[in-house]
Design goal:
308 residues; mainly alpha; 79% helix; globular; single chain
Length: 308
């Protein structure tokens, strides 16, 4: 039975990761795309490196460094830059709904690169999720957001690439270790572009700095620590299901914090995306359970009972 402490940690991650979307909308216009990415990654890396000895984080083996670099680039550097850029124009709630489709990309990569079997259920779930993404992307096309929406789609894609790459590292390292490696690697790979955004960093107002530091401390650093704690103690189905709550909570926080009102077709698209992701991640398991369920014994015919 799942303890209330573990469940609270999982729900805390949902709230923290959902709150990141409106926090980006607050910080990015003032601090800039590059500045916010750098500040968030530096703060998160500093906290995780400081906590590393207490969390039992080991140094990665040399043979795994290329994979660590790839995780840092896709999961941190590219994702942060793309998401921050897109949220300059796309509402936070909309962004969270699109990013929720990242497992769609992960499934495709797993099938192509790792030769994982794509069942009919997963293919159907992928088609459903794609339909939901298109519905969300077209929901605000009349407000000239279509170009920026595709930047968020690109952020979703690189996040989807990160998941199967990180899964390779998770065979050897803990979730906290993988998060620390990726965060530090992502910070280092962001350094070359920092001079382009330095002016915006130093001229940012206090509200942007508070939002930027919040993103590094809570959704990034604390969020990954709590997630590692929860994943180690929750069944896979439970931990995956919790992530389905992120876009819904993000839409609610964006409404309360920023006054964003979602377009009805966005909400419908979000529901379609989540339905598709549920099919992708849980469909085979549910079908397997149904097949293993014993069928009730058929009643003995009356004629046989009369002759017994």
């Amino acid at each position: 039975m799942t303890s209330s402490r573990v469940l609270a940690a999982g729900l805390g991650v949902v709230v923290l990761w959902a709150s990141a979307f409106p926090a980006i909308s607050v910080a990015a216009p003032d601090m800039g795309v590059i500045g916010l990415s750098f500040v968030r990654l530096v703060v998160a890396s500093a906290v995780l490196v400081f906590a590393a000895p207490f969390l039992g984080v080991r140094f990665p083996a040399r043979r795994d460094l290329a994979l660590v670099v790839a995780c840092g680039f896709f999961g941190m550097t590219a994702y942060q830059l793309l998401l921050n850029s897109g949220e300059l124009y796309v509402p936070a709630g909309t962004s969270s709904i699109i990013v929720a489709a990242a497992p769609l990309v992960s499934v495709g990569i797993a099938a192509i690169a790792f030769k994982e079997r794509l069942s009919v259920i997963r293919i159907l779930g992928s088609l459903v999720a794609i339909a939901g993404v298109l519905l969300v992307c077209l929901a605000r096309a009349g407000i000239s957001l279509s170009g920026a929406v595709w930047i968020i789609v690109a952020a979703m894609v690189v996040q989807g690439v990160y998941h199967p790459l990180s899964r390779l590292l998770l065979r050897t390292y803990s979730a906290i270790e993988v998060a620390t490696y990726a965060m530090v690697a992502g910070t280092i790979m962001t350094l070359p572009v920092v001079p382009s955004g330095w002016t915006e960093i130093v001229s940012s107002g206090p509200e942007a700095w508070v939002a930027g530091i919040y993103l590094g401390l809570l959704p990034s650093a604390l969020g990954f620590v709590l997630w590692g704690y929860a994943v180690a103690r929750l069944p896979v189905v439970a931990s995956t299901s919790l992530l389905y709550l992120v876009p819904a909570v993000a839409v609610l926080i964006s409404f309360l914090w920023l006054g964003e009102i979602p377009v009805p077709s966005e909400l419908l698209g979000g529901a379609v995306i989540i339905a598709g992701v549920v099919f992708i991640s849980q469909g085979d398991r549910l079908i397997g359970r149904l097949r293993r369920r014993p069928t009730p014994a058929s009643p003995t015919p009356i004629s046989e009972r009369l002759h017994s």
